[in-house]
Amino acid sequence: MSSLTIGSALPADWDELMDALLGAFSGGWLNHPPFDALYPDALVPTPECLRDIIVAKRGGRIVGGVQFVRQRLRLGGGTELLNGGVGQVFCIPEERKGGVMTATLGAAIAAMETAGCHVSLLGGDRQRYRRFGWENAGQMRHYALTARAIDDGGGAGRGGGAAAGGICGTPRRWHHDAATLDRFHAALDARPFGVARSRDQLAATLRRPGTALWTLDAADGFAGILLAGNTVSEYGGQPAAFAALLANLVGRNGLSADIAGHDGPDPLDAVLWRHAATFAVHQAGMVRVFRVGAILEAFRPLLERRLCEWQGEVVFAVCDGDAVCERVLVRRPGGGRLRVQTLAASDGAGTARVEAFSRAEWAPLLFGPFPPPAAARVQDERFVRLAFPLPLLWPPTAHV
Ligand SMILES: CC(C)(COP(=O)(O)OP(=O)(O)OC[C@H]1O[C@@H](n2cnc3c(N)ncnc32)[C@H](O)[C@@H]1OP(=O)(O)O)[C@@H](O)C(=O)NCCC(=O)NCCS
Fold first, then answer.
1. Strand, coil or helix: what is 246?
2. 253 lines ligand 1 (CB under 6 A)
3. pLDDT value at residue 351
4. What is the pLDDT of residues 159-200, one digit of tens each?
5. Which CATH number fits domain 292-387: 3.30.70, 3.40.50, 3.30.1050, 1.20.1380?
6. Radius of gyration in angstroms for the set of CA atoms belonging to the chain, rounded to a whole number
7. What architecture (CATH level 2) is domain 4-117?
8. Contact 91, 4 (CB under 8 A)
9. Is any atom of ligand 1 closer than 6 Å to the C-beta of 99?
10. Which of 124, 219, 267, 400 is least enclosed by beta carbons within 10 angstroms?
11. CA atoms of 32 and 337, how far apart (whole Å)
12. 140-282 has which fold?
């Protein structure tokens, strides 16, 4: 048998790759939609996209592959993390159980490291992906929405209707006009949480099957809600217009919302809250943490606030078996600012307590939704309780 070669997909591979994906995923479903039709924003034969599709070939034939999509996640307070959203993990049926997926995932992990990804999110089996460092983690709020809004003094009034906010206008489903796209793009960009996209990337996302953008454009306010099926996935705009739009949509159909769990009040989230019949928190996805130091540095403004009463020093170590992959010193001397410093192999830990966990354990420790059993080993419990979980989100319309 010829050997396996692993590398980025080439333009000439495109048609074979689309066929191989269908063959691997669709079983006997003869009219399964082509994969590039399912992900028109993420699976396109551009050089940038092909670079991040890792294919395994044997004798020149594609036998497996995996894709990662670079996504900038905006996580409040100006913090952005680069996510490698993973999808299209496949191996053709006749090559299965021969290590193809193990090899392509290994190459994708190396490529995401080189790309500077802070995290990687995917939707999939814990039993399959945990040994590569992914673990269920993150906290997304899930609301089941009802037309009967509660009145908790927020001003939307019983029913949360359009009249209460003084908004008159007719919700419309978006039909590809550029002006509405521009307004929705600007409204999403103004949100503290979300996926940072160009206008063209957003336009492509709106072509995903099963998505629908509804907008309300009234004289005194604009709002837009992007649905993935019946789930409110991404949204923005002026609060009264948003309240009117949401009240109208939930009045027509049962909806739910998968939104970021985060600190602090947000006027649009308060509107969703008023329409929530039930609340739940679920994981953002399976999360692989790349560099703990870079993540803590990105969240430093939030950590400064959360840890304002904490003083001391602690070393975070990421372990792979007996090997230590990364050590990060976090310290705040009395009255000083919080410092995050990645230690070189030769640096000692001094007197700092050392928190050592595997990569898969770090994901829920940093991002929740609750601490993993390994958290019983935490040395500086106060630090961990004050600092974590950090916010993370992966809206359904960003899944790959
Ligand atoms: C899932 C899939 C990609 C696996 O490809 P593969 O090349 O056969 O995988 P490998 O040979 O590297 O590994 C074979 C199995 O042994 C497991 N394995 C390999 N090394 C292992 C180890 N050291 N310890 C424990 N398990 C191990 C793998 O997890 C895999 O199990 P799984 O198929 O239940 O995940 C392939 O079956 C496929 O294409 N399925 C259809 C598409 C699909 O479901 N994709 C995943 C979407 S989330």
1. helix
2. no
3. 86
4. 444 444 567 789 999 999 999 999 999 999 999 999 999 999
5. 3.30.1050
6. 23
7. 3-Layer(aba) Sandwich (3.40)
8. no
9. yes
10. 219
11. 55
12. Aminopeptidase (3.40.630)
